[in-house]
Amino acid sequence: MNCRMTISEAHRRVTVVLFPGFELLDVFGPVGLFGHVPEIEVEYVANIAGPITSAQGAQVIATRCAADLETVDILLVPGGAGSRTLVEDAEFLDWLNNLGSRARLVASVCTGSALLAAAGLLEGKRATSNKLAFDWATSFGNEVTWVKAARWVEDGDRWSSSGVAAGMDMAVALISSILGKEAGRFAARKIEYRPQTDGTVDPFADLAK
After folding, report:
1. 52 has which bridge partners?
2. To 10 degrees, the CA torsion angle through 142, 76, 159, 93?
3. How far apart, in whole angstroms, are the C-alpha atoms of residue 184 and residue 175?
C-alpha cells in the first residue's frame, strides 16, 4: 500500500489517540503545527469518548470513540506516563490494533511507539522512541528494528519520533511528506519554530542506555 499522499488529496484527517496519563506536548506539539495547515483536520479519540486527563493534569475531550470512526486516515499515538501500564492492558492493545490496522498511516510520539509495538503494529518496521526510556520501550514487539540514533523514523506507513518535543520535528516532516515542503515550512514559520529537518540527527541519542 502506498501511503505517501499528494497535494491533489485536498483534505487529510489526523486522529489523535488519548488515554489517561498521555503527555500533553506529545499531542499538542504536533497538533499546533497541523492546526496551521488548512488541508489537515484533527480529531481526538479514546476507547470511551469524554474528558481524558493528561500526565500534567489538563483534561482534553475525546469527541470520538472507535465505533464512531468509519475510516482512519492518519493515526497519531502519543506517549506519557500512562503508557507504562497500557502496554500490559490487553483490551486497550486490541482496541489500538484495530484502529491502527484500519489507518492509512500510523505515527507515534515518544513512548507511543512502545504502545504500537505492544499492539503488534510495528512488526517488520523500523522505529524509534524516547531515549530516556529506550530500553523499556524497545522491550516490546517481536520483529521491530529499533533505531537508537534518530530524531524520527519513517518506514512506509509507520512513523515514530524520539521523546516529546521530537514529535514536532516529525510533524513538520510528515506535513512536508504529504503536502509538500512549503507546507511544512509554512506551519513551522507560523509558530516561529526551527525544526530539525534531518531525522538521523539526534542530539539525545547518547541518553539511551
Report:
1. 60
2. 10
3. 5
| pLDDT < 70 stretches in the chain | 1-10, 209
From the list 99, 110, 116, 168, the catalytic residue is 110
Contact 201, 173 (CB under 8 A): no
Q: Is 65 a catalytic residue?
A: no
pLDDT attached to residue 169 = 98
| Domains identified in the chain and CATH numbers | 12-203 (3.40.50.880)
Q: What is the pLDDT of residue 11?
A: 83
pLDDT in tens, 90-119: 999 999 999 999 999 999 999 999 999 999
pTM over 0.90: yes
Round to whole Å and give the CA distance between 32 and 48: 24
User: Contact 163/132 with Cβ under 8 angstroms?
Assistant: yes
Cell numbers at residue 160, please?
A: 515514530
The closest of 152, 53, 138, 45 to 99, measured between CA atoms, is 45
Q: Which residue, 201, 198, 195, 137, is CA-closest to 171? A: 195
Give the pLDDT confidence score for residue 10 in this predicted structure: 60
Closest CA to 56 of 80, 86, 32: 80
127, 120 Cβ separation under 8 angstroms: no
